[in-house]
Design goal:
The chain is an alpha/beta fold and 381 residues long. It folds into 2 domains: 5-126, Rossmann fold, CATH 3.40.50.300; 132-380, Orthogonal Bundle (Arc Repressor Mutant, subunit A), CATH 1.10.10.10. The chain has 18 helices and 14 strands. It has helices at 5-17, 31-39, 52-57, 61-66, 83-91, 108-117, 132-135, 140-146, 150-153, 158-179, 186-197, 206-213, 217-229, 258-265, 270-274, 279-295, 336-344, 375-380; strands at residues 20-25, 44-48, 71-75, 99-105, 122-126, 202-203, 233-238, 252-255, 301-304, 310-317, 320-326, 349-354, 360-363, 366-370. Strands 6-8-7-9-10-11-12-14-13 form a 9-stranded mixed beta sheet. A 5-stranded parallel beta sheet has the order 2-3-4-1-5, sandwiched between helices. Helix 12 (206-213) packs across helix 13. It is globular.
Length: 381
């Protein structure tokens, strides 16, 4: 099993601070495995709410959960949303020392229910698939090709990984989407998701996609929001600086898991990926996701003007401004956009992330950094 020390530390801190901790993320990203690893050696009671025996145990949830000492883990909390009110009552009891760890797949209903019912009592921990700090930087090509879902990444062969991802996509469309209370035909969502894979790394254009699918702008926007809320898509918002030039206002669209992107594009191996027209966009999205998992800024953006200047990733850390450019090139060059952004955005530093081996400086405030060494970015800020 691949260890996930960052999340274990986050859970430990959250459990100590708050009566309820919500561990959220897409299905099959490792929430249950992480929760069991965290609970090991502790005074913990585990409930799987998709298990009939465990549901029977919770016929009187306030009595059962109120008698637990230590940690109570409630997996697949979306199966019993009525527990949110029970947890609020138990959390507010004087002298309560029980801590609750609730697990659920991403769902607007869960997040809304937890936020409204348990306001001031809950802390959220968002879990994603594996990242480079967990899989080792030597495996970055496998992580890029297969994505970070544990069963996909750990498959014996690329064919097995591809088959798992196809099954995941089918299950997500045919079971998970309806369970969220969303009545969209799976065929329509599959078509939209496939079309969206060709827009990976591009500005969102609802009108263009709507025309292609014969739907309204509002409908395709709702489809995008569903995939975003389920942690499938990242909408990277634009940063607006007070300058004279017109700046891009539409978000950029990225698949959060590169493996799912490659499945929808029909790319089973590294050779197919490297020869595909979307290889540069795929690398950009993968690099951005890995930087975000390493640096973990509170908020992140991109910046672009209609005259062509653009920066892939912009974030503020401890009051200082930083940027990252992702280039699928063995010898990335400093561009006018990079130099311009240093002045316009007032950047402290800009890193160019590439698939090579060596780190080097190309400007007083611009460095080239191999993807396998992106932890150096975290150390520098």
């Amino acid at each position: 099993m691949i260890k996930r020390p960052y999340y274990i530390k986050r859970l430990s801190a959250s459990i100590n601070r708050s009566p309820v901790t919500a561990l959220l993320g897409p299905r099959q990203c490792g929430k249950t495995t992480l929760a069991r690893a965290f609970a090991e050696g502790k005074n913990a009671t585990y409930f799987d709410l998709e298990s009939r025996p465990d549901l029977q145990r919770l016929q009187n949830p306030e009595l059962v959960l109120g008698s637990i000492k230590g940690l109570a883990v409630l997996d697949e909390i979306q199966a019993m949303p009525e527990l949110f009110n029970v947890l609020r009552v138990l959390s507010d009891r004087p002298g309560n020392k029980t801590r609750f760890l609730i697990l659920g797949s991403a769902s607007p209903g869960i997040i809304k229910g937890v936020s409204e019912t348990l306001a001031g009592r809950v802390e959220f921990v968002e879990l994603s698939g594996f990242d480079l700090s967990e899989t080792s930087s030597d495996n970055y090509e496998t992580l890029w090709l297969r994505g970070g879902f544990p069963r996909s990444f750990l498959s014996v062969a690329n064919e097995d990984s591809m088959a798992w991802r196809e099954g995941f996509i089918r299950t997500f469309l045919e079971r998970d989407i309806p369970q969220l209370g969303i009545t969209i035909p799976s065929a329509a969502m599959r078509r939209f998701w496939t079309m969206l894979s060709h827009y990976h790394g591009q500005y969102w254009n609802s009108s263009e996609l709507a025309r292609s699918m014969g739907l309204s702008d509002k409908t395709v926007r709702s489809y995008l929001d569903i995939l975003t809320g389920a942690y499938m898509i990242r909408q990277l918002q634009p940063w607006h600086e007070n300058i004279g030039k017109r700046q891009v206002k539409a978000p950029k669209i990225y698949f959060r898991d590169a493996g799912l992107l490659h499945s929808l594009l029909g790319l089973p191996d590294l050779a197919s990926l490297q020869g595909h027209p979307k290889v540069g966009a795929s690398w950009e999205g993968f690099a951005i996701e890995q930087v975000l998992q390493t640096v973990r800024p509170a908020e992140s953006y991109f910046w672009a003007t209609h005259s062509g200047a653009e920066i892939d990733l912009f974030f503020i850390h401890r009051g200082k401004r930083y940027s990252v450019e992702a280039k699928y090139s063995e010898a990335p060059q400093v561009t006018r956009s990079m130099e311009n952004s240093l002045e316009v955005l007032g950047l402290e530093h800009l890193w160019v992330v590439y698939p090579g081996e060596k780190s080097y400086s190309v400007h007083g405030k611009i460095s080239v950094c191999p993807l396998r060494k992106i932890s150096d970015i975290n150390k520098a800020i």
